[in-house]
Amino acid sequence: MSFREFQMWVKYRHQYGNLNPMMRMEWGAALVASVLANVNRGKDDPPFRISDFAPHIGEPAVSLEDAMKTWI
């Protein structure tokens, strides 16, 4: 594999994610579960995230500005 081809694959993975079909299936199932949970949650309950239902999907890091907004 040439370096140019490697760079194209890296760009593809950054845009479309991992090529592992099980991870894609886990993400899809977690998406459905989070939507169903959010539809049926109480008014005062916090919303569910996809990462709540997918143990292998990491939650994105919170920026300092976003963290400061939640503190107030």
Into which percentage range does the β-strand content fall? under 5%
| Topology as a string of helices (H) and strands (E) | HHH
Q: How many distinct helices?
A: 3
- Helix and strand content put the structural class at mainly alpha
Low-confidence runs of at least 5 consecutive residues: none
Name the helicity range. 55-70%
Gap from first CA to last CA: 52 Å
Total beta strand runs: 0
Q: Major sheet, described briefly?
A: none
Kindly provide the radius of gyration, computed on alpha-carbon positions and rounded to a whole number of angstroms: 17 Å
- Overall shape: flat
Give the integer mean of the pLDDT values: 86
Structure description:
The chain is mainly α and 72 residues long. Helices cover 57% and strands 0% of the residues. The chain is built from 3 helices and no strands. The chain has helices at 3-16, 21-39, 64-71. The N and C termini lie far apart (52 Å). The mean pLDDT is 86.
Secondary-structure blueprint of this entry?
Elements: H1 3-16, H2 21-39, H3 64-71
What distinguishing features does this structure have?
about 55% helix; mainly alpha; 3 helices; about 70 residues
Sum this structure up briefly:
The protein is mainly alpha-helical. It is built from three helices and no strands.
